[in-house]
Design goal:
Strand 11 and strand 12 form a beta hairpin. The N terminus is likely disordered. A six-stranded mixed β-sheet has the order 6-9-10-4-11-12, sandwiched between helices. A four-stranded mixed β-sheet has the order 1-5-2-3, with helices on one face. Helix content is about 65%, strand content about 10%. The termini are far apart. It is an alpha/beta fold.
Length: about 675
């Protein structure tokens, strides 16, 4: 009867497994058909594969994410950022976590002992002793509860402190000088720094603190239980368990290797999907004018499809590895534990067998529970390797942005160039010189070269002193913006010498001025805060009001106070990018220029949305304030405000000459 039943159960198991496999295959096939069907638009049907070329599909060198010596070096570097020194508060929380873990292990050991005593009193039917031990257990439980919650608090606070310190360190590097600009425009190793600086840092800190607690507690438990079991049962039982730990750990760590690379790719695809969404928000007006919502939806779905496809592959792989983890880390560890604990009880003349049967049962119960705890600790330690592999992925990602930031801040860039300069004596990025000198801008044989390697002008030489207002002319792509980016030290100087005032004495106003988050006052004093304005002592709110009068925007103070409840007058808070019209934003930018009063101002089509009469009054005030102008504009009315012109033809040639009086008059 038993063999027949065994065969029947085996057959049912095989049939059930086959049916489950078939069902999973059908569901996956159906899901793929639905995705393929959904990826076709109802009109102008384009499959997802056709959109892949639209999304910037960069395949850079992926950072290696394996648990090896390199991973531990990278982890050590990042932890030095998060834990500055051995006397820091962060290290204090490391010790607090370690202390609570020790306390929790001893609590577990005490609970095993008191649990055995309570159950033995029940079996011996000793009521008073049972109540006494149960009351003792009840009294200690609040202490155990406090220990557990202090541990949770310490782990979460440690994660927050790690994230705070690492984020501040990376932000200091990212916002140092023009690093944030150079990372996006001069270096193409990282496409989505926002993803790395926010989500990846958070996940790294969370994974790091979880791993610390998940590794330290099992290691401590193993040490305690091995010591207790060795002194009573002998060394054979713990040796078997530790040998299994080494074998299982090596096997599962080897099988989990792909998880690190999968984690890196998952975060990169998450960043790409986030970037595609942010592009729609940034360019919503242009997309709406073109009625490009269907095309953008296809692009968005293509990016989402890549992400979901990868996440599904990760899920399938992790499910398979999870089955192996559970089998090896939990169930096999329990089997090995039962076998190991049985060894002393099947040996004749073992010291633990001496005494009455009740003593033998009590010993088995106590040490058996210890061995179960040891097996659980070994299982958790084996499974902690899974978290370590994920941590390797996050460590590689955060280390990647740290390395790029360090390189950029030392003047080292990596970018795929369209042109190759090996055979041309132009120089290389950063070889040119920048000399700071007041009241003069001089280019001495400086080439204008884009980050992609396009040579716009091989050698540019001219000199402008304070009071020499210059009009910069030329077709699109001739080098006007490149000239200003070199002046602003956004682009490196390849060769030659650039003589210019320090950064604070050179001001740039683009066609679409930037409006910061904050008050109306902040829009004029940017990048200064109210505190910095007061500290300088050169301007008051009344002076700022005069600047608004100069650009004919004094009505903003009353208008925004009436329509906005977030403050009054200068303290009104609003989304100024949306509240102000194009012309108002340009006039605010000119008021900002008057506030800072630099030696030189670069005006890049910054009055295109302003009427001619207001434009004339603003340019006249610039002359009164001794602000020398570099103006890019196609308006003929502006020629009369300049004495020189710099003409670029877009073919590598240029001309720097004085403007004739009759040319000023007619603006031709």
């Amino acid at each position: 009867m038993a063999p027949a039943l065994s065969k029947f159960v085996s057959r049912r198991t095989v049939v059930g497994a086959c049916a489950l496999t078939t069902l999973i295959w059908i569901l996956k096939r159906r899901n793929r058909k639905q995705v393929a069907k959904y990826s076709l638009s109802r009109r102008n049907a384009w499959p997802v594969n056709d959109i892949q070329y639209v999304i910037k599909e960069v395949k850079p060198k992926q950072p290696k994410a394996h648990v090896n010596a390199r991973f531990f070096r990278q982890l050590h570097q990042l932890l030095k950022m998060g834990i500055p020194s051995l006397v820091s508060i962060e290290f204090g929380f490391v010790l607090l976590i370690a202390g609570t873990l020790v306390a929790r292990s001893f609590c577990d050991l005490w609970m095993i002992t008191i649990g055995t005593l309570i159950e033995s009193s029940i079996l011996s039917m000793d009521g008073p002793l049972f109540k006494k031990r149960l009351l003792k257990f009840l009294v200690v439980l609040p202490v155990i509860s406090v220990v557990n919650n202090v541990l949770k608090y310490a782990i979460y606070e440690m994660k927050l402190r790690l994230r705070t310190n690492i984020t501040r360190d990376l932000m200091d590097q990212y916002l140092k000088g023009f690093t944030y600009y150079k990372m996006s425009n001069l270096d193409n190793r990282i496409a989505n720094p926002d993803q790395l600086l926010t989500t990846d840092v958070d996940k790294f800190c969370e994974s790091c603190t979880d791993l610390y607690s998940n590794v330290a507690k099992p290691l401590l438990d193993i040490f305690i239980y091995v010591y207790r079991l060795t002194t009573t049962l002998g060394g054979e039982t713990p040796i078997i368990m530790l040998s299994y730990l080494i074998f299982a750990g090596m096997l599962i760590t080897h099988l989990r290797k792909p998880i690190g690379h999968m984690t890196v790719k998952e975060q990169r695809l998450e960043g790409e999907y986030r970037h595609v969404n942010s592009r729609i928000i940034t360019n919503s007006e242009e997309i709406a004018f073109y009625q490009g919502n269907n095309r953008e939806k296809l692009t968005l779905l293509a990016s989402f499809h890549k992400l979901v496809t990868h996440l599904r592959k990760c899920l399938e792989f992790r499910t398979l590895i999870g089955v192996i983890d559970n089998f090896i880390g939990k169930y096999m560890a329990t089997i090995i534990g039962f076998y190991a604990v049985s060894i002393p009880f099947f040996k004749k003349n073992h010291p633990i067998l001496s005494g009455p049967p009740n003593h033998r049962f009590k010993s088995y119960y106590t040490y058996g529970r210890m061995l179960v705890k040891l097996a659980e600790a070994i299982g958790r330690l084996v499974l902690a390797g899974r978290e370590m592999t994920r941590l390797a992925g996050f460590t590689a990602r955060v280390t990647e942005i740290k390395v790029v930031l360090d390189d950029i801040n030392t003047g080292k860039y990596e970018r795929t160039m369209v042109s190759d300069f090996k055979d041309e004596p132009i120089g290389s990025p950063g070889e040119g010189k920048i000399v700071n000198k007041d009241n003069v801008i001089r280019f001495d044989r400086v080439p204008l070269i884009t980050p992609n390697g396009d040579v716009l002008i091989r050698e540019l030489s001219f000199e402008v002193k304070s009071g020499m207002n210059v009009l910069v002319c030329g077709p699109n792509g001739c080098g006007k913006s490149s000239l200003f980016r070199i002046l602003g030290e956004l682009w490196p100087v390849w060769s030659g010498t650039v003589t210019k005032p320090p950064r604070g004495k050179l001001f740039y106003i683009p066609q679409r001025p930037y409006m910061t988050l904050g008050t109306l006052r902040d829009q004029i004093t940017y990048p200064h805060t109210k505190t910095e304005m007061i500290r300088r002592g050169q301007m008051t709110d009344e002076d700022l009001k005069e600047l608004l009068n100069l650009v004919q925007l004094s009505h903003l103070l009353e208008r925004e106070s009436l329509t906005n409840s977030e403050g009054q007058g200068w303290d009104v808070v609003a989304d100024w990018m949306d509240v102000l019209s194009g012309g108002e934003k340009q006039r605010i930018a000119m008021a900002r220029l008057f506030y800072h009063k630099p030696q030189f101002a670069i005006l890049d089509e910054c009055t295109s949305a302003v009427s001619v009469d207001v434009e004339d009054s603003m340019y006249l005030y610039c002359k009164q304030a001794n602000i020398t102008l570099f103006t890019v504009s196609h308006r003929r009315s502006l020629w009369k405000h300049h004495e020189y012109y710099l003409q670029m033809d877009g073919k590598g040639n240029y001309e720097f000459k004085a403007i004739e009086p009759d040319t000023k008059e007619f603006g031709s």
